[in-house]
Structures are given as C-alpha cells and as structure tokens.
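Structure first, sequence second, as always.
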C-alpha cells in the first residue's frame, strides 16, 4: 500500500473507527505527536523551536524550496529546478482543476469498477455507489485516494486524458512551466515530473480557493460515507495540522520512485510561505518541512521598499512654458529581506523629461527602478498626480493665394480712394477761378429768316 502512493495508512484505519468523537480526536492528536517524536529520533535531530533558526537548515531532501508568494521570492532553495516525481502532491493540482470547473460540489458521481479499484492508497468506495464531488475531494485530500482522483477526473472532463490536458494548461497559467503531469493521482508514470518551485506556486494558488482550504485543513471528518454501513470518521494524513502554528494546508505523498514528498502552506503575522520537499527520506520530511517554514519566518521579514502614493517631484509639461506636473507611484513594492538588516535603497526614475500635455490624472508615464543593497529588486509604475493642461489651439492660417488676392484688392481700393480724394480737392480749388461766357443773342433777322 505505502509503496503505491499516498503516505501512511492512518486514514485507512481511521475510517473504520467506531468510537466516540472525543476519543477519536484524542487518539489522533496523540498519534500525531508520536509520529513527530519518532521522526525526530529517526533523523537524529532535535525538533526545532517555534522561533526557528537564523541559518539555512540542512535538509535530507534531494530538492527543497521555501517560497514567498506575496513577493515571488525564493527564500531557500536546494536544487529548486530539479525535475522529480511528485507522488501524491499531484492531487493539489487535481483539486484546483476540479474546483475551477465543477460548480456544484453536491453533484452525484456514479463510481465505476475502474475508478473504485485503482490501487495504492484509496478512499472508501464501491462500484455503482453514488458519491458527491465534495466527498470525493475529502477522500482525495485527507487520505490521498487514488481512486477518488480518477473518479473526479472522469466526472470533470469526461476522461482522464482530457483532465490531464487541463492540469497541464492550468499549471502553465500558474507559472509552473517546468513541470508535466501524466495522471491525476501521482502514481509512477514516465514523464510525470515537477520542480519544487513549480509545486510551491501550485500550492500557493490552491490556498486562494476557500473550498480547498476548508477541505485540506480538516483534521477529522466525522461522517464520511461508506459503501456499506453507516458513515465513519476520516483523519487527515497531514500531521502538521496538529503540530505547526499557522499551518493553512498541505499534502504528503510517497512512491518507491519518488520517495517522500510534501508541500505545506503556513501564515504568520500577515506573511505567507510555502515549503516543498521532494525525494526525502521516511520520517525526516516532517522535520524538514518544519525547519524550512521556521527558517523562512524567522530569518526574513517583509519590508515595504517603496510605498504606494510616493511623490517624486515635478517635471515640465511639453509645449507649456512654466507649467509643471507632479509624479506619484501607483503601487507599493514589498520584498522579503533578512531579519535585522538595513539595506540601502536607491531609486531611479525612468520618465520623459517633458510630460505629455492634455493627460488625465493617473495616466502612467514612466516607472521607478528600485535597487536594494546594490541589486535590482523590482519596478513600480509612475503616474501623473493631477491632469496636465491642454495646449491652446493654434491660430488658423488662410492660404497664401487668398491672402495675396485680399491684399491686392485692399491696395487697389486704397489707390482708387486716394485718387478720388485728390480729384475732389483739385476740383474745389479750380471751380472759383473758372469764367463762364454768355452766349450772344441771336439776331432777330436770323430768327425771322431775313438776311
């Protein structure tokens, strides 16, 4: 059973307990504490205190990572890009795809014989039984049911190959570009490989889904439907739910090819960290996960390198003499920095020397390049604090031919007017000096016709 997939058989035993609720919870907590103690003895290392170490821990896993999703930083990495089999941690991505494509978690799924008898760690089910999608998700995440993974894949996409195609597409959307999935449960298969960093990104996306957190963080599910008889309790295989302060959710896995694998997400003081171990040794992976998370929380702190709304002075507006506009950052830049460190910050504004006119407030016009401790740590968009004034519209110019004709007409009219005025003045001067002669009277004889 353990060599097939899914970790210890605690869940398989738990579903057959028929004792009271208080007794079951007490036994589960005692068992979790005992497992942690045995793990510490097997690894010959003391359990780390809650405060955590300040130096990077030495882990036995072949690949490990501590990832800060809020800033996208890797706080610890041991071969984080090495591709290894993920075993049952595959089911984190399986749950994401199901929750993104199935709206009604109370929908009934009829179990077939091929789905019920997959092999390896299994959730209780029988051929012909009808189970809800929600019950199958509990069987998937609490006891790592390989059969539940196949039943969910077939119900969601119609077939396992179609569901696997959705898994790979979703992984690429989440930034897990160096991983490839062949099945929904993590059983050994050629080409079914992940990197620790990709798995951390997948887990960070999973805890953004409330239903995933609700299911994966359940310590004991009181009533899980059984193929025959009344419902029975089911205990979560993730022992960190009882032992690690701030744990949100996680998933363990095991195959003979993959070894022990685990991913866990924890939150403390508003910070969120993801720890992943791949190809670890039995029992030690619990201590490795604890050491990695403690290291991330104790050795680093979140610092606001550049706040949102930081004013960056003024710059001139193009084409507008003596007009200026103020610049401001539109977002904050936070980084994980070593605890107790005081790194020198340097900023470099990349924006036009003269800002464009006629733009609204909030228009992005550049960026702020931020350097911390001599290393570039990111960029922040820079926008206008207020609107820039609009330039005055240019004066309308008439065509030169029209101007020439108009000028000629004005000049001609002026010449005519001047000449007319001149004639008037000359006429007034000559008129008084002019003499008129009277016409002689016509002789009467001529009028009478005589000579």
């Amino acid at each position: 059973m353990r060599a097939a997939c899914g970790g210890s058989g605690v869940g398989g035993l738990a579903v057959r307990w028929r004792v009271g609720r208080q007794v079951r919870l007490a036994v589960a907590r005692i068992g979790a504490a005992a497992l942690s103690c045995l793990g510490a003895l097997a690894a010959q290392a003391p359990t780390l205190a809650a405060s955590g170490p300040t130096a990077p821990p030495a882990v036995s896993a072949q690949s490990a990572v501590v990832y800060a999703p809020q800033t996208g930083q890797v706080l610890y990495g041991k071969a984080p890009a090495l591709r290894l089999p993920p075993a049952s941690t595959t089911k984190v991505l399986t749950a994401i795809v199901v929750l993104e494509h199935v709206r009604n978690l109370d929908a009934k799924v009829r179990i077939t014989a091929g789905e019920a008898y997959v092999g390896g760690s299994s959730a209780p089910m029988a051929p012909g039984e009808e189970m809800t999608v929600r019950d199958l998700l509990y069987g998937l995440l609490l006891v790592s049911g390989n059969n539940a993974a196949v039943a969910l894949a077939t119900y969601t996409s119609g077939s396992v190959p179609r569901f696997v195609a959705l898994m790979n597409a979703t992984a690429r959307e989440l930034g897990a570009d160096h991983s490839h999935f062949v099945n929904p449960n993590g059983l050994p298969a050629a080409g079914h490989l992940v990197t620790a960093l990709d798995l951390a990104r997948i887990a960070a996306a999973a805890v953004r889904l409330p239903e995933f957190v609700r299911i994966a963080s359940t310590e004991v599910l009181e009533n899980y439907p059984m193929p025959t008889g009344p419902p029975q309790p089911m205990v979560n295989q993730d022992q960190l739910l009882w032992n690690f302060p701030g744990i949100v959710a996680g998933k363990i896995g095991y195959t003979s090819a993959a070894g022990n694998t685990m991913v866990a997400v924890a939150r403390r003081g508003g910070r969120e960290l993801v720890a992943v171990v791949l190809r670890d040794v039995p029992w030690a992976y619990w201590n490795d996960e604890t050491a990695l998370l403690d290291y991330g929380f104790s050795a680093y702190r979140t610092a606001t390198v550049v706040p949102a709304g930081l004013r960056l002075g003024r710059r001139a507006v193009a084409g507008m003499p003596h007009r200026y506009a103020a610049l401001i950052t539109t977002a904050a830049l936070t980084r994980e920095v070593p605890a107790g460190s005081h790194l020198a910050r340097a900023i470099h504004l990349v924006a036009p020397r003269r800002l464009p006119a006629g733009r609204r407030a909030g228009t992005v016009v550049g960026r702020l390049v931020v350097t911390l401790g001599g290393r570039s740590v990111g960029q922040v968009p820079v926008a206008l604090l207020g609107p820039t004034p609009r330039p005055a519209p240019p004066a309308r110019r008439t065509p030169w031919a029209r101007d020439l004709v108009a000028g000629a007409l004005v000049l001609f009219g002026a010449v005519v007017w001047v000449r007319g005025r001149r004639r008037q003045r000359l006429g007034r001067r000559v008129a008084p000096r002019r003499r008129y002669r009277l016409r002689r009277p016509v002789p009467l004889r001529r009028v009478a016709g005589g000579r």
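Margin note: The two ends are 170 Å apart (CA to CA).
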